[in-house]
Amino acid sequence: MKLNEIKDNEGSSKDRIRVGRGIGSGKGKTGGRGVKGQKARSGVAINGFEGGQMPIYRRLPKRGFNNIFASEFVTVSVGRIQTAIDAKKLDPKATIDAAALKAAGVIRRLKDGVRILSDGELTVKVSIEAVGASKAAVEKIEKAGGSIKLPAVETAAE
Questions:
Q1: Does residue 83 form part of some domain?
Q2: pLDDT in tens, 18-59
Q3: DSSP for 14-67, written as a single string
């Protein structure tokens, strides 16, 4: 194969239809817009209009709820922390917290805290301080000889 022989597969792309270029083209005169009416004119934008019928976005019920008070955490995997340690961006002897992860470039912004997830492997003993962590992530950190400090869970005891 040579560079000058490279081409698209047969039928993979169609030629552009040249509209309004004479009656012989089959798309001349009105250019496929029919005769008169709003849609034959330029500048028509009637998205969602169903000819007077109740539009689907109004026929269907409203659903869902967006909790504006919900906490939004930055997720960091155990494997991503290991990669940063291998690249000498994080010090495994120091406590790894949100500020250290931001300084190392592992996370971009702090949001409401960092949550550790279990994707990847950890081979170094580390001390991590985070807002939350999955059970599997805690197991991986402790299996590597490290520790994780999470805030005390508040239970609604009556």
A1: yes
A2: 999 999 999 999 999 999 998 899 888 788 888 889 999 999
A3: PPPP-TTS-GGGSS-TTTTS-SSSGGGSSS---TT--TTSPPHHHHSPP-----
**Cα 86 from chain centre:** 27
Residue-wise pLDDT tens digits, 82-135: 999 999 999 999 999 999 999 999 999 999 999 999 999 999 999 999 999 999
Question: Is there a domain that residue 9 lies in?
Answer: no
Instruction: Judge contact between 118 and 140, C-beta under 8 A.
Output: yes
Euclidean distance between CA atoms 138 and 150, whole angstroms:
10
**What's the domain range around 123?**
74-149
30 domain-assigned: no
The answer to whether the beta carbons of residues 76 and 118 sit under 8 Å apart is no
Q: What is the DSSP letter of 144?
A: T
What's the length of the chain?
Answer: 158
How far is Cα of residue 121 from the mean position of the Cα atoms in its chain? Answer: 24
Looking at the structure of the chain, the number of domains it has is 1
73: which DSSP letter?
P
